[in-house]
Amino acid sequence: MSLLVRHRGGVLLVSGEFAECRQIDTGGSGITMPDATTGFKQTLSRSPTGDLPLKMAVQRSGRLTQDTLDLLHAIGLQFESYGQRLFSHCRNFPLSILYGRDDDIPGYIGLGTVDLGIVGRNLLHEENVLVEELAPLGFGYCELVVATLRDAPFTRPEQLLDARIATSYPESARRYFRELGGRPEIITISGSVEVAPSLGLADAIVELTATGSTLLLNDLRPIATILESQAVLAAHPEAMADPAKRANIDRLMMRIGAVQAAKRYKYLMMNAPEAALPAIRAIVPGLKAPTIVPLADPGWVAVHTAVEEDAFWESIERLRAAGATEILVSSLEKLLL
Ligand code: ATP
Ligand code: ZN
C-alpha cells in the first residue's frame, strides 16, 4: 500500500518499507531516495546478531554532518561515509544510516520511514512532527530569532503583530506570533532572508543565528529569541515502543551518554602532603571519592580524581594554593556514570 504525503519541499511516496520510499516531486528540494533497485534492501536484511537494523537519518552534507559522523564513530560504530553515499550499513551494530537533506529528516522520523534521526531541534520545531527527542547532542548550537533593522522603530516582538515577516521558518514564525496574539504576513524565503528588510521586502525576519555575524553584516539586531537549538537525537514513537528496537536505541543512548560525560570531565593526578587532604577533597570531591595512594616519601600522597571541565581552572588554582604539586591532567575518552 502506498501513501502520498505532502511534505516541505515535495511529495513523498511512502510504501511500507523504507526501501521503497522515494521523492517523486521535489519542487526544488530534496534528494532522490534510495529505492529497491539501488540496493537499500541489503541493509534491511538481518544483521549477524539476528536483529533487524535500526534506521537512522543524518544530514548528508552541511553544518551538522561532520559532528554527526564524529559522534557516531566516537561511540564505536564502524561504517563507511565517504563520497556521495545515500546509506551505510554499520559493520558492528544493527544500524543503517541514511544520508539526507536536513529539512527532510523530521518527516522521515515522523512518518516512521526511519527509526531515528540526528537533526537540528529548529527543524523538529518547524515541522511540528510527532517524534521523541531523546538527547541533545552538544553541537549545531544556534537560535531562531526575530530580528529587525538596527534603526527600525521595533524593540519588542509585540510591535510586529501585523507586520511583514520574511523567514525560511514560516510555521515557527506563525506559531510564535499567534501565541502573542498576532497574525503578521509571513513571506517564505528559502535563502538570504537577512537581506529582506534592507530591500524593503519585510519589516523583520525570523532566522537562525549562531554568532550573530550575518545579522550584524546586514544591519540587523535580534529583538527576541523564539527557540534555542542544537542537534538532537530524535526517534519515531513506535520505534521506542518496539522492545527489540528500544533495546538497541538504549545501547546507542548509553554510548552517547558516555562520550558526552567524558567531555564534561578531566582526569587529575597530583601529589600532596597528607595534611592537605581535607582541603583537596573539599575542592575536588571526585565522582564518588578521590583515590589516595601513599607515596614512597613519608607524609606524601598521590590523589587521583575527576574534575568538571567548567570548573577546571578555578579548581587547579585552589588545589595549588592548598599545597598540591605535580598536577597532571588528562582527557577522558568515555565515562560511564
Ligand atoms: P541541507 O542541504 O541538508 O538542506 P541546509 O543548508 O539547509 O542543509 P545547514 O546550513 O547545513 O542546512 O544547517 C543545518 C543545521 O545546522 C540547521 O538546521 C541548524 O540546526 C544548525 N545550525 C547551526 N548554526 C547555524 C547557523 N548559523 N545558521 C544556520 N543553521 C545553523
Ligand atoms: Zn536544509
Folded structure, characterized:
With 337 residues, the protein is of the alpha+beta class. It folds into three domains: 3-139 and 231-241, Periplasmic binding protein-like II (D-Maltodextrin-Binding Protein, domain 2, 3-Layer(aba) Sandwich), CATH 3.40.190; 142-229, 3-Layer(aba) Sandwich (D-Maltodextrin-Binding Protein, domain 2), CATH 3.40.190.10; 265-331, Alpha-Beta Plaits (2-Layer Sandwich). Helices cover 26% and strands 33% of the residues. It has helices spanning 41-44, 65-74, 105-111, 121-127, 170-179, 213-217, 237-241, 243-264, 277-283, 312-322; strands spanning 3-7, 10-15, 17-25, 54-59, 87-89, 95-100, 116-120, 132-136, 142-149, 164-167, 185-188, 204-209, 220-229, 231-235, 265-273, 291-294, 300-308, 325-331. α5 (170-179) links the parallel β10 and β11. The longest helix is centred in the last third of the chain and has 22 residues, at 243-264. It is globular, with a radius of gyration of 25 Å. The site of zinc ion has 3 residues, from loops.
CATH topology of the largest domain: D-Maltodextrin-Binding Protein, domain 2
**Helix share bin:** 25-40%
* Largest sheet descriptor: 6 strands, mixed
CATH C-level of the largest domain: Alpha Beta
Write the H/E string, N to C.
Answer: EEEHEHEEHEHEEEHEEHEEHHEHEEHE
Low-confidence stretches: 1-44
Strand coverage percent: 25-35%
- Compounds present? adenosine-5'-triphosphate, zinc ion
SS element count, helices? 10
Q: How many β-strand runs?
A: 18
How are the strands of the largest sheet arranged? 5-6-4-7-14-8
Architecture per CATH nomenclature, i.e. the level-2 architecture of the largest domain:
3-Layer(aba) Sandwich
Pairing-aware structural class of the strands and helices? Answer: alpha+beta
Overall geometric form:
globular
Tally of distinct domains: 3
Radius of gyration: 25 Å
CATH superfamily of the largest domain: Periplasmic binding protein-like II
How far the N terminus sits from the C terminus, by CA atoms, comes to: 46 Å
Roughly what is the average pLDDT, rounded to an integer? 88
